[in-house]
Amino acid sequence: MTLENLTVKQLRDKIGSGDIAAKEVVGQVFELIERRDLQVGAYLSTFQERALAQAEEIDRRIAADEPVGQLAGVPLAIKDNMCTQFGTTTCASKILEKFAAPYNAHVVDKLAEADAIIVGKCNMDEFAMGSSCENSGLKKTVNPWNPQRVPGGSSGGSAAAVAAGMCQAALGSDTGGSIRQPASFCGVVGLKPTYGRVSRYGLVAYGSSLDQIGPLTKNVEDAALLMNIIAGHDQRDSTSVSETIAVVPDYLAELETPLEGLKIGVAREFFDVEGLDPQVEQTIRETLKVYEKMGARLVEVTLPHMKYAIATYYLVATAEASSNLARYDGVHYGHRTEQPKDYLDVYYSSRAQGFGDEVKRRIMLGTYALSAGYYDAYYLKALKVRNLIRQDFEQAFQKADCLMCPTSPEVAFKIGAKIDDPLTMYLSDIYTIAVNLAGIPGISIPCGFNSENLPIGLQILTPAFTEEKLLRIARMFEKETDYHTQKPKFLGHKM
Amino acid sequence: MDVKLIVGLEIHVQLATRTKIFCGCRLGFGDPPNSNVCPVCLGMPGVLPVMNRRAYEYSLRTALALNCNIARFTKWDRKSYYYPDLPKNYQISQYDLPLSYDGYLEIPLENSETKKIRIIRAHLEEDAGKNLHEGLPYSRVDLNRTGTPLLEIVTEPDMNSPEECRILAMELQKLVQFLGVSEANMQKGHMRFEPNINLHITDEDGKLYKTPICEVKNLNSFRALERAVAYEKVRQLEEWKQDHTYTIEKFGKQNRGWDDNREETVFQREKEEAHDYRYFPEPDLVPVEVEEVWLDKIKAEMPELPLAMKKRFIDDYGLNDYDASVLTGDSVTAVYFDQAVKAGGPAKRVANLVTQYGLKTANERDCTMDEIGVTRNQTAQLAQLVEEGTVNASAAAAIFEKMMDDDRDPMLIAQEDNLIQQSDAGALEAIVDEVITANPQAVSDFQAGGKKSGKARGFLLGQVMQKTKGQANPQIAGELIDQKLKK
């Protein structure tokens, strides 16, 4: 079996049993990166020497029968908005292009404890603001399934790296759909955990009350395995949930056990969407039939405030972002303009030069929403509507175990198709965005392809802190199908 | 014409927690720039604040001592503005749900009256760093101070004189010291004041004018506070007298700075039109719910307040009002005195030693009673020796001074230095006889009575003291003289 066909679990087992050396694995993965990343552009930085040294150490310990972590020797990639003490953490922005963090994000430490090998940091939309990866200030990433198409965003690099076999799995972050949508565009699994399930310490903040880190993987089992590693309370993050309130289960334990009498909520509002591609809709309906054949029942639910979700999100997220990004001021770290006219110009010019257009757009929007005279009408109102949206889901979950819908109303769109029309870009988040507002977990799994062989994703939602059930529901479908095993033909096996 | 001065005060008190409000950095002073910092207080990408529980408890303790209502639910807010000493370019503070509100502090006035100053609110927030502008052609930023926990206390405009402002500030300093929540050392910048000052002027026609409310920024001594308020009182009146248009309706609120060299306030140009801080709830911190159990625990652990301590010193220890006041003037002295008495020192004698020698030295050295080198036990023992007559007053002074560098018991020191008072009448008698024999003129003066008699007695006594190298018990010696010479 070639490296790229192995899942995290399979590779981990082979390394652990001595079947293959970690050093060999790292060698192969960097070969793949060298061959493919010129075209895909998923990585902003890679750490070959460091990875090799780590691999050698792991091999040594395995040979000496010393204990190794649960991900020993497995090459992973992480989105470049998670701080690493090695290399740079750029958030794909010119303002942090040379920033070397003095500390590791919590999840980076957890991966290191598990002996995973981080091979590189992935491209993204700048500061996680975007749905296509086109807003990256540093690089272009294309969809491995079709180089004319976007990989999705903002975790586009992470999704592309996994889809193109340039790592076994990756971590991304999700504020309005940024793990799930690129997962759906790239034909991989993407999970956004419940808000508070995974520590945000070391994740460069965009929308503080919305951000979560989660895995992008080839299959559901790998997502469960990674959740076992990264989930849990971190005292450095006051919003990370205490484990007395929400225990971290073993997400692998019951994964193969399907849910008996599964009630699947189908929201009217999710199929009434303008711009829902008919092929996507068809594929989702067929997916639902597969579940019905397994004994599940479809239940109609309603999410009456869904139509306000995008507006609410773009007030809450941008308000928080305008504040979170205030620290990039050219004074303490990051890009500083050369030859400022005065101290105010240090701020003005450093930020004007360092930030891309979309980032500026959102900072302005957020500042406006918080400003005197507008706070009540915009930000405060948005907080109230957010509550209503959360209640919509709570009520829906009284009638159904989970909700299902497309992850995106369309397949991966053409590069450049929406970049000049931000509002159209925003509207493509229609299915994912409300999930962050409510804080509940959501997963996207591959469920088909359109006539141009572009992946289509199914989104499954469950109540807060029920990722174990969510993964089981996802696994039910995956077991019956093989969409997740398909590989992009663009790369083929000749490359 | 009637002129009434109206002043409200905003005080920032630095809390004496071991570490900063949102991270584990140590609180220091005078350390090399940017040496007490970490990614969190530096506002690096990806960091998150974590609430310092003790800072919150100290705040609750202070709020209780200020008779405030304690909010059972309170949250944090971001206050946004850009400045190089504020690394995140927002300050985490409390806006509309402060941790306490509606309290008061009673202050003593000159004529032994008291005045109640109402407290609007007291809340917790983080401090910013320091910008340094002198000495180089560019400015520098020291972020050691960022993240220091500050308790912001806001009073109603209840003060009507510069003295009242100073007294309030000093009482607050004493209070937080007694509570153990702040060192309140003015030299270290532990307390900063911002008075809001205006005048209510009723002119001869009975019309009421109000001058603009002027806020003087960042005063950090009692002296500067009192002088700034006094200056404003004069300045605002003069300004208004010009054409009566210097009013709050026309000018609203003004910011002024204090120039300590020229001792005047200076108008500060507004950076922006009434700065919009864009307050919104801090998403990285959870709200605090204060449960009764927690509050009860804090109440139970409340240290004794200065007024209560003073009363106890008067009632239980029999001190007079003046001494009790002096001894409760600061918390270190009060506790020192109290502990020395509890260690067995007779209260009045301990009081004398502390006020006459201890505080004198502490003031000279600009340090506290705990830092002059004499332990409470030593003081207690010395007081006992004085009470028993084993040493006299001047010997006590000498021993006290010696104990500043000497750890040993005062008794040993007294013995070593021959300071034990000779109180044995028998032993003194011989010497008294010697002195009487050697000074016939003084003897006859004494026996003659009248004005010279007192002086002569003093002279003879002095001779006895001299011959005994100060060790004679002057009372006993005096009695012997009287006995022998009075006919």
Keywords:
heterodimer, A: 495 residues, Amidase signature (AS) enzymes, 11-stranded mixed beta sheet, 16 helices, 11 strands, 38% helix, 12% strand, globular, B: 487 residues, alpha+beta, 10-stranded mixed beta sheet
Would you kindly provide a written description of the structure presented here, covering whatever features stand out?
- The complex is a heterodimer of chains A (495) and B (487).
- By secondary structure, chain A is of the alpha/beta class.
- Chain A has one domain: Amidase signature (AS) domain (Amidase signature (AS) enzymes), CATH 3.90.1300.10.
- Chain A is built from 16 helices and 11 strands.
- An 11-stranded mixed beta sheet of chain A has the order 1-3-2-4-6-5-10-11-9-7-8, with helices on both faces.
- In chain A, helix 7 packs antiparallel against helix 16 and helix 10 crosses helix 13.
- Chain A is globular.
- Chain B is of the alpha+beta class.
- Chain B is built from 16 helices and 17 strands.
- In chain B, helix 2 packs antiparallel against helix 3.
- In chain B, the strands form 4 sheets. In chain B, strands 1, 2, 6, 7, 10, 11, 12, 13, 14 and 15 form a 10-stranded mixed beta sheet that branches.
- Chain B has 3 domains: 291 residues, no CATH class; 113 residues, no CATH class; 61 residues, Arc Repressor Mutant, subunit A, CATH 1.10.10.410.
- In chain B, a hairpin with a 5-residue loop joins strand 11 and strand 12.
- The chains are: A alpha/beta (495), B alpha+beta (487).
